[in-house]
């Protein structure tokens, strides 16, 4: 699927986050990604991955530091600017919407409606284009609430793509998907040509698809950079407290990781 814009560069500078009345969840996070990068963020449960994403799509305001989108401070961008440039797929999805698949995907076009005009034909065409790429053809009139977990996830990704964002943020997009669908969605995301930031539990998927990787642990950035330099047995073992072994794949340029509990 092609988008109407190129990806956006993103910079995070000394970002910290402390919820009201709580303890600090993120500590001086700094990272930079170029337009078109696919950044995979990995780390154990409670590392701060979802909290970081929420700061990046402005669901919460950082306690310190700043986020820049193509050099513009998030604080200077309107909600409409953000909605047109950033699309989000999160894990917290209601069990049921009283809408059809087509209705849900069309919601991705809301930021592009012009005044009283809904641009109905154009928006419907873009929504159907997104559904086709997520293998949702024939499901347009299905009720969202009747879908399986994997089908719901694909619908929500289609809604985000219909938005035609410069930056797409996803929290565990491969959740609820079987192996084939995981690979299909990540392959699709990698070919979009826009900037993507996603959290992933599967380190091997992150190593296989990301152009850049980051590891979080206890709200701190252990490493960020090219996957070969970040997703190493040493970094992974330190973050997850497991024994990690890297096995060379036949192409000689990549590795598959296996894990075992520390004795």
From TrEMBL:
Molecular function per GO: ATP binding; ATP hydrolysis activity
SUPFAM superfamilies tied to this protein: P-loop containing nucleoside triphosphate hydrolases
Keywords: ATP-binding, Nucleotide-binding, Transport
UniProt xrefs under CDD domains: ABC_Iron-Siderophores_B12_Hemin (cd03214)
Domain of life of the source: Bacteria
Family: Belongs to the ABC transporter superfamily.
Protein name, UniProt field: Iron ABC transporter ATP-binding protein
């Amino acid at each position: 699927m092609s988008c109407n814009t190129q990806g956006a560069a993103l910079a995070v500078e000394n970002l910290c986050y402390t919820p009201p009345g709580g303890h600090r969840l993120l500590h001086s996070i700094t990272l930079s990604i170029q337009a078109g990068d696919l950044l995979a963020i990995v780390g154990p449960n409670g590392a701060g991955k979802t909290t970081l994403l929420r700061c990046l799509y402005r669901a919460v305001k950082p306690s310190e530091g700043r986020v820049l989108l193509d050099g513009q401070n998030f604080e200077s961008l309107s909600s409409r600017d953000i909605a047109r440039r950033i699309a989000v797929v999160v894990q917290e999805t209601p069990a049921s919407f009283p809408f059809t698949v087509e209705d849900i995907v069309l919601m991705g076009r809301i930021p592009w409606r012009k005044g009283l005009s809904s641009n109905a034909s154009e928006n419907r065409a873009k929504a159907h284009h997104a559904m086709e790429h997520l293998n949702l053809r024939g499901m347009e009139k299905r009720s969202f609430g009747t879908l399986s977990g994997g089908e719901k996830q694909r619908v929500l990704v289609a809604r985000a793509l219909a938005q035609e964002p410069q930056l797409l943020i996803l929290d565990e997009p491969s959740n609820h998907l079987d192996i084939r669908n995981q690979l299909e969605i990540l392959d699709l995301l990698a070919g979009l040509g826009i900037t993507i930031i996603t959290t992933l539990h599967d380190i091997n998927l992150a190593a296989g698809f990301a152009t850049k990787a980051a590891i979080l642990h206890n709200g701190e950035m252990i490493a960020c950079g090219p996957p070969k330099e970040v997703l190493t047995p040493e970094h992974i073992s330190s973050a997850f407290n497991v024994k990690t072994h890297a096995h060379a794949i036949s192409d000689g340029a990549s590795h598959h990781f296996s894990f075992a509990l520390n004795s």
